[in-house]
């Protein structure tokens, strides 16, 4: 086999496994938590992902740069994450429906803390290997990364059709993927380390120097809206499937396909995400970052609005499917386009740090505060309610999220000043 083809296959397997670990629980954990009486705590389980994202990726990045090769640290992190996730699953198995927040959450939090840095570590392994093989990372990496989303989707399907979406077994599935990856990571191409880096580079490693970008009015406004839109990121991951699952309380929907296979239905979002990546280069060149971001705001508005108006049958199901489809636009046009805008509007000396600030504002602060606020909204409209009243409360919560996205769109259109120059 051609060495370059062989390398691509090895990196495809790595990306597939990384996201398969995540897909086993990210969109189904809320269902399990609701079934064991922790529905009011879902936001905290998703907020911890944002909290650890504030420091763990940067910390592990320093370790990989200076002491432990990235591919080995990838394996170590996944082994630890898998062990902690298995411990969380064991708690679920041992205590059954009586498992408490204190028994489950600490193990889950530790698992997430060691998982979140592995996305960046996986990118580092890929970029290093491709560059050393004389390949173009811009051209060759995206087709490899797509298999990460495929791994995520396949893992979702596994927990959906096995019924593991309803219980602690989804945590064991995630742990199993993690152990396989931990072993596999040690076979990947070696990444260099630089043990002679000056300690002053800690400022750059944590992206602190890039905070000078907030002195620029345009970049400051962009980062603020990135934070606000980042609040939407984990809302549907945490609450969409519990919402769909709640329809099972109503006799007319109890046997509906969308209720029994709610995680499978949710996976349409990831399929859409994969396809919408292809639209970004055209849209950015044609419309510019302001219009592309506005499209994302509107897509989030539709995503939430369709969920609130839908139900598991007839035209209601069509609305659910449309909600899953627009998710690809909502997510990609914000995350990927925003990252490209930051790259194009920052000095080369702080470009990597600027990406760190963007991730901190979106997946760190935004996702954390958004998850906690979303939990408060859902609790306000749904706690203590049953049947039709409960589902009406869920709809009200989704409409509240939709209104939030719409207000952001209007404010962004007014406040963010940007003139698109296609030639530039």
The whole-number mean of residue pLDDT values reads 90
Structural class: mainly alpha
Just give the CATH class of the largest domain: Mainly Alpha
| Radius of gyration, CA atoms, in whole angstroms | 21 Å
Q: How much of the sequence is in beta strands?
A: under 5%
Structural shape: globular
Biggest sheet character: none
Going by CATH, the homologous superfamily of the largest domain would be: MFS general substrate transporter like domains
Count up the helices. Answer: 20
CATH architecture of the largest domain: Up-down Bundle
Number of domains: 2
Order of helices and strands: HHHHHHHHHHHHHHHHHHHH
For the secondary structure, the number of strands is 0
Helix share bin: over 70%
Q: Quote the CATH topology of the largest domain.
A: Growth Hormone, Chain: A
Low-confidence stretches: none
Tags for this model:
424 residues; 75% helix; mainly alpha; 0% strand; Growth Hormone, Chain: A
Overview of the molecule:
The structure is a single chain. This protein is an all-alpha fold. The chain has two domains: 1-189, Up-down Bundle (Growth Hormone, Chain: A), CATH 1.20.1250.20; 209-418, MFS general substrate transporter like domains (Growth Hormone, Chain: A). 75% of the residues lie in helices and 0% in strands. The chain has 20 helices and no strands. It has helices spanning 3-23, 29-35, 42-53, 56-66, 70-95, 101-115, 117-132, 137-161, 169-185, 202-205, 217-230, 235-246, 257-260, 262-266, 268-276, 280-287, 289-309, 314-344, 351-382, 387-415.
